[in-house]
Every structure is written in C-alpha cells, then in structure tokens.
Amino acid sequence: MILPIYIYGQPVLRKVAQDIDAENYPNLKGLIENMYETMYHADGVGLAAPQIGLPERIFVVDLSPMASEEHPEFADFKKVFINAHITERNGDLELVEEGCLSIPGIHEKVPREGEVIIAYLDEELQPREERYSGFMARVIQHEYDHLDGILFTDRISPLRKRMVKNKLANMEKGKVACDYKIRTVR
C-alpha cells in the first residue's frame, strides 16, 4: 500500500524515533513492504519511518536502480535497517548534493563523513554491524538522520539555509506540489 509521505513542517519529522520490539511488532513485514512500495512510487532510494508518520527506528534503502558499470555494488543493495544506530563515523567531510522526499523541490550540498559503521537488525531480525563508505554511507546517514529528527537542510551552510527559508516556510503552510501522495501540516 502506498502511504502518504510527511512533508517538512510535520512534527513527527523532528522527533527522535524509538527502537521497536521487532519480534512482537504487529505486521512488521507489511510495514516494510509498504515502505518500499511508497519509496518506489515516489522515485526515492531510501525512506525512514518518520517520513510516513511513525517515530520508530526503521528505514529502507534500495540502490539497485542506480547500479551501473561504475557502481555494480549497488545492484544488490536493498536493505532494511531496524533499530539502527550509527556507532562510528570516519573520514573527511564530503560535500555532495542531496534531496529528500519530505522536502520536495530542494536540493543542496550536504557535508557528511565518508564512512560509517551501523548496528541494526535486518529484515530477518538478525543483528548486524556493518561498515559502509561513499554513496552508501551518505544514503545511510541521510535516512539515519530522520530517526534522530534531523533533516538535510539542518546540515547545510547558513547562507544556503537563508536561501531556502521561504520555500521551507511555504511547505510548512502546505504550499507544495508533488507527483506522489503527501501529508502536509495544513
């Protein structure tokens, strides 16, 4: 089922998400399927539970549509991160443009570390701790930020923040157009 994506200004996007009782979570598999379906419908590569109104520590990522000769490792990168916690960030800050399904129409260069270690439960509820670098690390950090109530616009330079201020204010007022199902504040 395609769910509405919560847009900038929705309070749930600013909450710190809580770990879930994954073994007893009602219809966890259904939630994961709905998150993937919602993400694909919106042409995203990642989606966090707060973006669909749930302040819970779960996000999905699928980089397979971006696989190429240059990045064959993306072909098999479809993952669910449950109760995710980044335990380490390493490397120089890299400035790369990002966008977000919850902030449609805005793309900005965001500084992020080049490598992360993340502990989480996979879709089979098996504990994992993995190291990611490059674009994979960037996508994971972006989605992980949603779990901590952080949006990519919080990480951009003060000048760029001033430049997008009016667009964000309009989103908070419900003035936004999307090709996918959304839920605005008003």
**Secondary-structure element pattern, one letter each:** EHEEEEEHHE
CATH superfamily: Peptide deformylase
**The biggest beta sheet, please?**
5 strands, antiparallel
Silhouette: globular
In order across it, which strands form the biggest sheet?
A: 2-3-4-5-6
Number of domains: 1
Describe this structure in words.
The chain is α+β, with helices and mostly antiparallel strands. It has one domain: Peptide Deformylase. The chain is 23% helix and 29% strand. It is built from 3 helices and 7 strands, in the order βαβββββααβ. It has helices at residues 28-41, 134-147, 158-172; strands spanning 5-6, 46-48, 58-62, 78-98, 108-121, 127-133, 182-183. The strands form 2 sheets. The protein has a 5-stranded antiparallel β-sheet with strand order 2-3-4-5-6, sandwiched between helices. Strands 1-7 form a two-stranded parallel sheet. The mean pLDDT is 96.
Essential attributes:
five-stranded antiparallel sheet; Peptide Deformylase; 186 residues
Quick take:
The protein is an alpha+beta fold and 186 residues long. The protein has three helices and seven strands.
Outline the secondary-structure elements:
Blueprint: E1 5-6, H1 28-41, E2 46-48, E3 58-62, E4 78-98, E5 108-121, E6 127-133, H2 134-147, H3 158-172, E7 182-183
Parallel strand pairs: 1-7
Antiparallel strand pairs: 2-3, 3-4, 4-5, 5-6
